[in-house]
Amino acid sequence: MSLKRLIDVGTVSQLLKKNIINKEGVRILDCSYDESQYGKKPDYKQFEKELYGKFDRILAQPCPSKRLYLSGHIPQAPHVCIDVATYPSQYERYAPYPPDVFQEYMRLVGVDPDEHLILYSRGKFGGMKHCSKMAWLLKAYGHEKLSLIDGGFDEWKKKGHEISKDDVKLKPGSWTAKADNFNKYFIKFEQLEEQHGDRRYIEWTDDLNLLDSRVRGQFEGTVDTGFPPSGVPPRSARFKTLARRGSADGRWVPEANIFWNGCKIAKVTETSFVGGSCVYVCMCVCVCACVYVCVYVYACMYVCVCLSVCLSVRLSVCLSVCLSVCLSVTSKDFIA
């Protein structure tokens, strides 16, 4: 079945009514996360010794996010928790497991190869925050058939759709992660150093975009992250969270209405995202497919100002024409 990257709750409701979910190669996963767990980093040495990769033991422990899920969720959706899908390392709260370990968790959830996974969560950013992170993880491990529910569980409730409190358990799946794909999406700082040889870090920014996607408070050091205070990579640009440019109720706006301010990006493939929100930003890029919008917008703004000055043409007219052109061009630049 072919589904868009971003689907509305009405589409999901129809899939449930037609008895397609969990039966015709389509699964829906609840990625709800209790944000009170932010900053509560377990002792990484103890975790590595007692729980690393032992998903049966991890799932047997009390889980605030699971309680949130059991308070109400979309019918037929099992729960997937980012605390289980990742592990606390020495420096990371949510470090990605090696592919062969992560796939064991997905198999326990009930995921099979080549299935289309529909993900959702609840809370901030129109309920998109945590499902976007999980979607990016799955994409990094090689799963391509992914969709997010626009507005998440809050939108589902708002529209009056059926709510379940069952603890959905599916039979174990046979999904397999792709190691080559994982190594393509996750890189270490040491790899960047090797790639750039003897050049100093500050010189990397001549051919590499480093985008810091943390919230402004963390970027400026005024908000606690649960880790020792750290600085900001020199010449890195803070990438504004795209959800702040969404509609009043938190859902995503059409891609034509999203513009990136302050970041000139030549190619997304040459861009490194820094910070805990980077997976959300990356998923926004994957879903909305606005690859070169920022480049064209900056160019058209320059052109239209020149036209308005030199030809005495109204600036608003020039803006409309140039923006239309740049958006028609970006419509061809989709990310696969």
UniProtKB/TrEMBL annotation:
<protein>
    <recommendedName>
        <fullName>Rhodanese domain-containing protein</fullName>
    </recommendedName>
</protein>
<dbReference type="InterPro" id="IPR036873">
    <property type="entry name" value="Rhodanese-like_dom_sf"/>
</dbReference>
<feature type="domain" description="Rhodanese">
    <location>
        <begin position="22"/>
        <end position="165"/>
    </location>
</feature>
<keyword id="KW-0808">Transferase</keyword>
<feature type="transmembrane region" description="Helical">
    <location>
        <begin position="305"/>
        <end position="330"/>
    </location>
</feature>
<keyword id="KW-0677">Repeat</keyword>
<dbReference type="Pfam" id="PF00581">
    <property type="entry name" value="Rhodanese"/>
</dbReference>
<keyword id="KW-0812">Transmembrane</keyword>
<dbReference type="GO" id="GO:0004792">
    <property type="term" value="F:thiosulfate-cyanide sulfurtransferase activity"/>
</dbReference>
<feature type="transmembrane region" description="Helical">
    <location>
        <begin position="273"/>
        <end position="298"/>
    </location>
</feature>
<dbReference type="InterPro" id="IPR045078">
    <property type="entry name" value="TST/MPST-like"/>
</dbReference>
<keyword id="KW-0472">Membrane</keyword>
<dbReference type="InterPro" id="IPR001763">
    <property type="entry name" value="Rhodanese-like_dom"/>
</dbReference>
<keyword id="KW-1133">Transmembrane helix</keyword>
<dbReference type="GO" id="GO:0005739">
    <property type="term" value="C:mitochondrion"/>
</dbReference>
